[in-house]
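Support reply, case 0932

Customer input (verbatim):
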Amino acid sequence: MSEETWHGIPRSQIPWYPTIDYEKCVSCGKCVDYCKLGTYEFEERDGKNKPVVRNPNNCVVLCTGCDSICPSGAIIHQSEKQTHEIIKGLRKNYPLQNKTET
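Our regenerated output:
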């Protein structure tokens, strides 16, 4: 089975995924409901169901939709600028392929 890629770059090499600030998180679950790709799941912590980032590579590169859906501002992503720079560096090893019809 081949590794999943984002525009030809192995997804696991692109550090783009949400993190949850549990000091702010109110465990409402809006992030779990919002992300249809299964990035989040609930997990019992301290006797409460709390959202966790279970599948970080399921997050669509450069998507920040869950950031704005979070009522307490507990979700953050890496810097878009830094992520673009990382992708630019990775592109040297994974050049874009031109698709041609056969």
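We compared this against your earlier run and they match. Two observations from our side: The mean pLDDT is 91. The longest helix spans residues 80-91. Please reopen the case if you see a mismatch on your end.
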